Amino acid sequence: MNFILFLFLLVSFNVAVSQDDCLASTTCSLTGPVIRFPFRLKNQPENCGYPGFELSCTEKNETMLELPNSVSVMVRTITYESHQISLQDPENCFPRQLENLSLSSSPFNFSLSYSWESLYNYTFFNCSSQKKEMYYVHHIPCLSLPGYPVYAVMPEAGFRDVDLSSCQKMYNISGVPYQVSEISKVFSLNWSSEICRNCEESMKCRMKSNSKEPETECIGEPETVSGAARKLGIAGPIFSFFLLLVALSVF
After folding, report:
1. Which of 185, 195, 246, 250 has a CA that sits 20 to 30 A from residue 129's CA?
2. Cα distance between residue 26 and residue 43, in whole Å
């Protein structure tokens, strides 16, 4: 009987600690973005975050997000209410990584400022002479070398718009914002509002257990970041641990 009590208390303690680890927010640095569900850090259990929302901390305490395929970007801000994450290329040249980017296999999409905006396709060219910039042709400074400018050209551009005879094709990209040259600096992605729907204003959010497909559910009351809240968050595990010590002393 005592052994069964011991096992029960041990399991209760582990479950309580695990739940507390998932519900508590964290950061990579004092000035870094707050990390909480649907995001999680690599060292946290998988159920602490939604699939595809895994973050990591660098040795410089920078917050990093890895997008398919092996596209690594630095997280500047996370706005949970509007489901938006602001990102920056570590080398300030995101077009360099666009060749490998595949947002179709991620939970994110490019954020557009206006409803009438669209995403566009481009072909990157390395040229040996300068071309006139226009609606269909964008200069990419971070990829260019002296005497060898790089341009992102829309498929709609004709031979009358730009002469590409002195250029060599680099690669094609699809589904990016119009100002492709501007995303060398900072850009934003959105995630589906169905994830944690209606949870941000009144409740916390977590993964739904015993679900075949990834689903989220709202739980509890609004989280308040205070010392009292954190004390309440750890009270359960501490009490279970105290009972565990009592049970051990009986043996």
Report:
1. 185
2. 12
